[in-house]
Task: structure prediction
Amino acid sequence: MLSSLFDSSTLPVLEQVVNFTQARHGVLAGNIANIDTPGYKTRDISPDEFQSRLKEAVEARWQKNISPTYEINAQLAGRDKVIGHDGMDKVRESVKSILYHDNSNVGIEQQVAEITKNHALHNLALSLMTAQFRLMRTAITERV
Amino acid sequence: MFNALDISTSALVAQRTRLDVISSNLANISTTRNERGEAAPYTPRYVMFETDPEVATRGGGEGVKVASVEYSNVQPSLKYEPGHPDANEQGYVAYPNIDMTTEFVDALEATRAYEANVGVIEITKDLGQQTLQILA
Result:
């Protein structure tokens, strides 16, 4: 019941975004830490790759006719559903792939700009998640 | 996909390159020999900036990039120092024609431009934050 309650919202998507931004933050922090390391190659996790996979996953979820309330309705109606699969496997995979760029001389400015953008995306996803949970709590406590 | 942050970042990189070149000019203000040890005064360098259409926002904002670092075509300044090993037959030593005041003003300008772009980055971040407050 709980998993379907969460899966029917945008939480699985936001979860992947937070997952991705946290992984990328680690990689970018590593780049900044190694800014003076000779021969160090800048590493990155491609946000474009992640975004496109996320888009595919979200579209696939929609195509499976999973409307925001589908899973709750399915459970109420006693219909079968695949438990424990949120259709995000490919997205998870994209987080693992690290690109090695050949130009090792990427400056501190670019790295800091990237980490700032990543930070903003992370906070955006987390704020949206918080808002979702707040809505849920409002519904549970029946207090407005 | 680029946003205002990338434009400001391109300016930061460009201004830092400019500052690097100014440092080089000031450091070599008395350099009379080139890297091979021959008597040739250091030539002051200039950084050429150009707009970078690769870093552009949909609103028409364009970033900046360093097109090249070019040599000044100003003649070296001659100083009468007959005992100097690099002096010519007339006893003159060719020193780089670098005006310290000009370079310092340039350095100050580069620093201020850098600061201005950091300021724009802060504003861009703040804009995003404000939008987020409406969303959630």
